[in-house]
Task: structure prediction
Amino acid sequence: MMESDPPFLETHKTLFTDLLTQSQKEEKPLVLYNKGDDGGREEHYYDLPLIDLNCLGLSEFERRECGREIAEAARKWGFFQVVNHGISQDVFDRTKIEQVKLFRQPFVKKANEKLLNLSTGCYRFGNPNATSLKDFSWSEAFHIPLSSISGLRDFNCLIRSPIEEFAELVSDLAKRIAEILVENLQGTTTSSSFFSEINCLPSSCYLRMNRYPPCPLSSKIYGLVPHTDSAFLTILYQLDNHLGGLQLLKDGQWLTVKPNPHSLIINIGDLFQAWSNGVYKSIEHKVVTNGEVERLSVAYFLCPSNETVIQSCIQPSIYRKFSFGEFRQQIQRDVKSTGSKVGLSRFLIT
Result:
């Protein structure tokens, strides 16, 4: 264990009692995740729908066809991947270097000091509210609002941080994709400029930089627990894109997403599902652990201000209207009381 690794076992010891007890009864060492062990999982990789964004700059017909493909993927899968997205490999490579440097800071410093002048609570690991292993994530992360990313300049003594550059590019891409989805939603007269009019501000949108340390225990432990995203959209780049680890739930089956080093993964969040009246799907997904190597990823979340009211654009609505702040507060109450998120089902009209 490195000095930078979170002390998962020490701080969440009660959650691992069963594993400890089992190893003692069987007189086996605690290490249950052997090299090559997949915990009984058969790794079948699935390709997400692939969208070439170059088509948006071609003829009007090809632009419309590209928009139709994006909307179809959002309806049927809730996930898709895009290539020719305008972010160079150089930006990805420099982002990874900076992210590795950040996570290599001693755990005590990450947890107890204000790195990058960020607010308290931006660094998280595990799940302090977990009541069982099914609610526990073997990972650590930095949640950074776009308005605070400039602090990374001081950390690396740079005029402009690669992560700051990545955030600007992916923010523009998220709004572009969101407008295409609005434009291609049938049954609504909402303008495609919708996302320019609501308050998706640098202070409300954020990056989540993720690190999944090697997990020496059972492969039944999640890297990130099954969940849906609360934002309008998420854009994910897997910095160790040859390793994979992302799984999504489709038709009652967990599918392992095939890594694509050239693509960004985009998924629909809860707010888009509510706004589209369930047409676009916010799909449950998770990250599995790896027993041997660490994995890194970075995700951008397109979120409005807490005051923004979310109301279905198609009537009759299956969801009652709610503010984003109300939605977040409900999630926090559920996580505190049950250990996990409940989400949109709380807002269904019965």
Residues 27-41 have pLDDT under 50 and may be disordered. The CA atoms of residues 66 and 280 lie 16 Å apart.
